[in-house]
Write a structure and sequence with these properties.
Length: 386
Amino acid sequence: MTHKIPYGRQHIDQNDIDAVIEVLKSDFLTQGPAIERFENAMAAYCGVKYAVAVCNATAALHIACLAADLGEGDQLWTSPNTFVASANCGLYCGATVDFVDIDSRTYNMSVEHLRKKLSLSEIKPKVLVPVHFAGQSCEMKEIAELKKKYSFTVIEDASHAIGGKYKGKPVGSCEYSDMTVLSFHPVKVMTTGEGGMILTNRKDLYDKLVRLRSHGITRDESQMPEKSHGPWYYTQIDLGFNYRITDIQAALGFSQLKKLDGFVKKRHELVAKYNEGLKSLPLELPYQNPDTYSAFHLYVVKLKKNLIKKSQKEIHEELRAAGVLTNLHYIPVHLQPYYRNNFGFKSGDFVEAEQYYSEAITLPLFYGLTDAEQTYVIQTLKKVLV
């Protein structure tokens, strides 16, 4: 293979390019009709009432937490097996952050660990952020039952999972949660460049999210504490942010959404080929909960280290030297220096997440991965492991 194969890559076709050019020639580059069109289309796709598009998924997590009234003295719990944004959003609000260890098969937040932690902890979370790792939904029905018992807000971090399903319904329907966050970063299943979205069925949350993404300002007279002075008038009700998405990004997202089911179908085909080609190797292949239909943002294998002479680092390095640009998702958040130094987390706090991290490899998986490229990845991995 003469070129390098990344672990993820966006797929842009002429329809996407045309959609963006159309907006560039229009009257609105931001705060225009393309945003509402994208939001409405995504809400319809996911079967949810409201959608709020923002500049990225980190911003989405932040204002979702604020809409849930998370603040000083509160706790947010999430998975240690995630990108740092899933935890940082709690700190942005002045809350403290703790973690719930993962399931050894799905690598998602373990319901059993969550149930036990809730029963033993004096301080319960105000917000829980289950992360749908690699595109597979967490066990949301069980989490919703615990939500009823302990009265916390559930924000699904579905940054990996747009296009997936749980119990036959689209991820993002919010049947078992208060809000769901999506990501449209280029390595995700579909892209807007940078971009994110919050989905919800609650009008009160929707109204607050819309204000928070744009400086806490509203032009809706029904939300104003005083009568409007005229057509120019607006009032700032909350301390919000400039987290708006542009019409350029929304046009790309609307175009990409039309292809989403095809993107996910192709990922499943690629996963099937990986599963067949790697089944004889000393690897643990991805497990799929029968209640879920994964979006397969990532294809992660775990090394059976007792059967392999090389270290995890050596395997990554040899694959990368051969042009297979593997990655590792994720370094457990609690082991990041910031969390160690400021909150006292240490090795051994979340055993399953740490064990997973010591064995995981993320292989290339994206819509445009060719048959020849995937065959090369499989053959190269066989050479490296044997």
